[in-house]
Write a structure and sequence with these properties.
This protein is an alpha/beta fold. About 45% of the residues lie in helices and about 20% in strands.
Length: about 450
Amino acid sequence: MTKQTIYALSTVYGKSGVAVIRVSGTSSLKVIEQMTDININEIKPRYTYFTNIYDNNKNILDKSLVIYFKAPHSFTGEDIVEFHIHGSKAVISSVLDSFSKIDELRLAEAGEFSKRAFYNNKMDLTEAEGLADLIDAETSEQQKYALRQMEGNLRGLYDGWREELLKILAHLEAYIDFPDEELPSDIIDNIQNTVFKIKESISKHLSDGNIGERLRDGFRVVILGEPNAGKSSLLNAIAKREAVIVSDVAGTTRDAIDIHLDINGYPVVFTDTAGLRNTDEKIEQKGIEIAYKKAQDADVVICLFDGLKNIPQEFENIVKNQKIYVANKVDKLSDEQKIDILNKGCLLISAKHNQGVDALLQNISSKIKEKFTSSSGVLITRQRYREALYNTINYLSEFGFNKEIELSAEDIRLACREIGKITGRIEVDEILDKIFGSFCIGK
């Protein structure tokens, strides 16, 4: 990793009350010396200084708050200086331009501050990705879980498994180095039990129904029904705007249309689909195929039908998901018809007149909340974690004492490496520490 001092605007470029420019590296104090009146020999870490900022010709660019974070007690683990300047485009541009003329500085690459924090052991990869998720969070639940991950809940779990495997590997490596010594039977039993328990724990962790990825990308709710059942009208009512075209002409919706919404803190992707019916029209047939595929992949399917008609048989083909049967056009139903539909366990709405839509959304929110909270509190949020954990289980399944000890050790080493891919930390020195760390002082 390059040790060159980097700088970048840490807030969004544009008109704002305050903008923050961050500098990280060994020349951070030199920037203060060249561009402010602050005496760097007397500067105190984590104190806020109010000062003028000058360009290379000593012209005043702005009045700024300056904060110095001394290594290693900073975000990157390096010396960091933050300039809190006024957020006009002119001020931001002039200050950045002056920074660019300092030889020891260069503009930071995307994510380079976080990358330096990782290299300096200020965070692991899961915490770095938690930070990225926090920046991208659009709902309160995304925010909460991103904070948990950024604070190390995944790191603690994965490091715990890796720590146990490294202990096993240390025993096996020691046996390989000293083949005249036999592994005691109690150690063999303990190793086998530990490997079994870790496999079980990882398997349980993986059986989360992909809730973590859903929380990041959005829970899928698909609206399914016959033509003119009111699917597009319902989606518009949910979105509270004209998100899709509504028409009395059957087959108007040919493709799946997604709308992203925040439902009680959960990110939800609602999908309007083509009407289910028998048709010879090729494009419409393709749209219906897409509708069924979307329904099969959804977390919740809204089975919408015209309350004046019977429940369509096509809904019975959707068996793998949570289904909510919803009768539309309640404004056209008699009291007797309403009671009959309610007795069948269906919800009543009028998408056109926005009746019952809030109750439907509450029902969806409850199903998502139940699915989310019933899973583990530590969730897999990325596919790469999942793939590495499946690989870990495969290597642990290959482990055993019924083959050459070198091959058994390799199984454990590869399992450690897979977990290390998630956190970004796996080194030979760790194994050596486990081997020699239990020695007596002086040995």
